[in-house]
Predict the structure.
Amino acid sequence: MPVEDINTQAWIVYGRRQLARGYMPPIPDHLAWTPWEGVGPGGEVLGDITGRRVLDIGSGAGHHAVHLAHAHGARVTGIELLPTQHERAVSTHADVPGVEFTHGDVAEHLARSEPFDTAYAIGTLAFIDPHRVLPALRDGLRPGAPLILSLLHTDLHGRGPSTELAPREQMILLREDPSLPTQMWVLAPQLWEDLLTEYGFRVEAIDLLHHPEESAPVIQQLIRARRLPDRPARVSSRPRSAKPPQAHAAVGVGAILLSAQGLLLGRHRRGTVELPGGTVERRTIRWRRWRRCSSPLARSGPGRVLAQILGSGRGE
C-alpha cells in the first residue's frame, strides 16, 4: 500500500474513535506548536494576519483555525483529507465567521485556489510526501508568504531525525485504544532546509522545542520559512536572428604586429592593437596618429598582415 494511503487509513480510524467518544478539543487561548502547554512561541510567528487568507494544513478538529479567526482576525481555510476529521470540524464550527473547512487533498486544493497569504501545519506535513506537497505550497502561496511548520524531531523512544529522505514507522499513541502505525517523514533540520530551498522557500529559523520534563526525550522542530519571489524571466540582449549583425562605427584598423624577434609591437593597454584612422595596403602598414593612440615606441615600416577587422564606417 502506498505510504500516504497507510497514513490516511490510520487517521480515519483515529477520527472515528474520537467521534465515538464525542471528544472535541477546546478553542485555545493561543496557538500552540507543540502538545505541551507553554512551550514555544504562539501565533505571532505567522506575522500580521488580520484580514489575510491563511491555510491550515491538516486542520483536524478545527480548533486552531477558529482561534486564529477569533483572536487575530484572519480568514482561515482549514483543509483536511480525512472525512472523519472534517466531520468533527464542521459539526462544531461550521458557522464560525472567518473560517471555512474544506475536505480534500492539500495539493489539489492549492492547485484550484487563489494564492494564500500564509500557511501553517501543526504536526501534519510529515505525513505527506515532501516532493509532492512542497511544490504545491510554493505555487499556492503568494511571494513573500510565511510557511510555518511544526514537525517531529525526536520521538518518545529517543530516536532522532533521519538524514535520508525516506519515511519511517511512527505510532499514533492513544490513551485508551491500541496505537496506530503510520509512515512519517521525520527528517533532520538540514534536510528540511535543503528541501524547502529546492522548492522555492527561504528558511529563516529552525527552533528545537523540548519536552518540559527533562526525562522525556521528545523534541519538536519549528521551521519558519518564506516563499521566495518568482524569478524574472531571462531576457536576451537582442532577439535571435539568422541575419549577420550590423556593423558599428569604425574606430580604425586593428592589427597584430610581429617584429623580427617575434615581439608584439604597440600593445594597447587593454591587450589589443588599435590603429585609429590607419589603413592596411598589401604588405605595407602605414599609421597616422600612432604615437598619440598607441605605443610611443612603435616605428612605421613593412610588415605582414595576419588579419583585418574593419567597421562599416557609417557611424551606426
Confidence is low (pLDDT under 50) at residues 248-254, 263-298, 311-316. Residues 65 and 76 are 6 Å apart (CA to CA). Helices lie at 3-21, 63-72, 83-93, 106-112, 130-140, 189-198, 290-293.
